[in-house]
Amino acid sequence: MSERDKFQCPVCLGFTLNDPYEPLSYDICPQCFVEFGYEDSIPLNDWNTRRDEALAERHAELREQWIAAGRPYGDDGWVLSRRPAPAAE
Ligand SMILES: [Zn+2]
Predict the structure, then answer these.
(1) DSSP assignments along 60-73, one per residue
(2) Per-residue pLDDT tens over the stretch 19-42
């Protein structure tokens, strides 16, 4: 699969996804490392009333965090709080 067959990540905006973005796919973007349905989860009330808007806001927030962290890439870069730092060898 070439780059141009891929789909855009709503967080880092890279064309990194093998399948189109789905809110609860539990796919993980290989560039910004966000897991959809986990890091981009939104309150249930927002989900029921203004899902697209709330998701867009959440993605923008995650994008800002990723950019502020220097656009770290992949496993040893973008470590959100739930991800333990790689064990020192
Ligand atoms: Zn991404």
Answers:
(1) HHHHHHHHHTT---
(2) 999 999 999 998 898 999 999 999
Ligand 1 mean position, distance from CA 32 (Å): 4
Distance 76 CA to ligand 1 centre (A): 15
Neighbours of ion ligand 1 (CB under 5 A): 9, 11-12, 29, 31-32
CA gap 39, 21 in Å, rounded = 14
pTM for the model stands at 0.78
What's the 66 CA to ligand 1 centre distance in angstroms? 9
| Dihedral of alpha carbons 52, 60, 34, 43, sign | negative
CA torsion angle 29 33 36 39 (round to 10): -170
Which position has the token pair 């966000």?
A: 34
